[in-house]
Specification:
Keywords: DNA-binding, Transcription, Transcription regulation. It holds the Pfam family TetR_C_1. InterPro entries: DNA-bd_HTH_TetR-type_CS (IPR023772), Homeodomain-like_sf (IPR009057), HTH-type_TetR-like_transc_reg (IPR050109), HTH_TetR (IPR001647), Repressor_TetR_C (IPR004111), Tet_transcr_reg_TetR-rel_C_sf (IPR036271). The chain is mainly alpha-helical and 234 residues long. It has two domains: 56 residues, no CATH class; 177 residues, Tetracycline Repressor, domain 2, CATH 1.10.357. Helix content is 65%, strand content 0%. Helix 4 packs parallel to helix 7. The longest helix has 28 residues.
Amino acid sequence: MTSNATRKRRERGSISPEDILAGAFIVAERDGLDNLSMPVLASHLEIGVTSIYWYFRSKDDLLRKMTTQATTFLQNQLPTTEGWKPEDWQEFLLSYFSADRASHQNANVLTDLVLMRTSSYSIPSTHRVYRGIESILAYLTKAGFTARQAWFLYSSLSLYTRGFIITERMRQVNQTPPVGLSQLSLIDVENMPILVGLISEHDAMLDMADDESFAFGVRLALEQAARILEETSG
């Protein structure tokens, strides 16, 4: 086995910023963003740490570039309003926010960069995100909402979806499964008959962050928005 002291490093200039960013995502996925450092990244890439500083002046600079890449990736995963008829706004929003949530599942670094470390956003990343929001607001106003109603509808569903994503992320970090029959000891059986009944019925799991719960909440918001739209149009 070759020791770290004798490991052959790459030639200076043989690595690109794209290679460094790709390596940073790998290290962050393996060790977590908090444990990502220039020396650790350099060791992973088998280069001198000065080769990283040639392209990225600091860890904050590296995180900004990683966030730009993450937000670009996420925006490319989300459906656009192009081709959607205004009257299909409910189906579009359900599709949009379901895709948003799905993009974050098992993508811890993406979630941490896009949702947890918003201070790492660059101006281009911020503009890209808000251009996407602008197009959705324009689409909703075509459907009949006022600009303010469109903003409230988008922001409410966005925060709702973010809550699901972060809940799933924290559950994964803490390794806390949903409550099921195997965890009935966590429930006060004598004083919580409704919860016990829900768990016992078909061995159901009490999961606040599953697909069914997510879709149920989105549909509730959309039904209320439809009533508001009807009142506005009337």
